[in-house]
Amino acid sequence: MKSLDQLELGEPRLLEVDNRCVVPCDVNIRFCITSGDVIHSWALPSMSIKLDAMSGILSTLSYSFPVVGVFYGQCSEICGANHSFMPVALEVTLLDNFKSWCMGLLND
């Protein structure tokens, strides 16, 4: 999560992160999540997505994002003292942009 002094104009407080999850638009994506401790819940309300993360269990979800944009969510399971500081920021981009982003990661 970005601290208050790191936020740029227009970025939401307590929801923006320093490393967004980036996925391509109109491509079926499979999310696989688990937890190392208590139950968490990975939620993107604007996409009607909620996936529970439980210790010892691999939860999966397949989804194709129909629009480009940045979508915010957070842990939606009260999981402990830092529950309110578990943001989700998902960036959906065009496939060509996603490929370029991946190549940039390989070059870093």
From TrEMBL:
Keywords from the UniProt entry: Copper, Electron transport, Magnesium, Membrane, Metal-binding, Mitochondrion, Transport
Gene Ontology molecular function, alphabetical: copper ion binding; cytochrome-c oxidase activity
Class of this enzyme: translocase
Domain (Cytochrome oxidase subunit II copper A binding) ranges: 1-104
Names of required cofactors: Cu cation
A cellular-component GO term for this protein: mitochondrial membrane
Gene3D superfamilies (alphabetical): Cupredoxins - blue copper proteins
Membrane topology per record: Multi-pass membrane protein
Reactions accelerated catalytically: 4 Fe(II)-[cytochrome c] + O2 + 8 H(+)(in) = 4 Fe(III)-[cytochrome c] + 2 H2O + 4 H(+)(out)
Subcellular location: Mitochondrion membrane
GO BP, sorted A to Z: ATP synthesis coupled electron transport
EC number: 7.1.1.9
Similarity annotation: Belongs to the cytochrome c oxidase subunit 2 family.
Subunit structure: Component of the cytochrome c oxidase (complex IV, CIV), a multisubunit enzyme composed of a catalytic core of 3 subunits and several supernumerary subunits. The complex exists as a monomer or a dimer and forms supercomplexes (SCs) in the inner mitochondrial membrane with ubiquinol-cytochrome c oxidoreductase (cytochrome b-c1 complex, complex III, CIII).
Protein's UniProt name: cytochrome-c oxidase
Organism: Ascaris suum
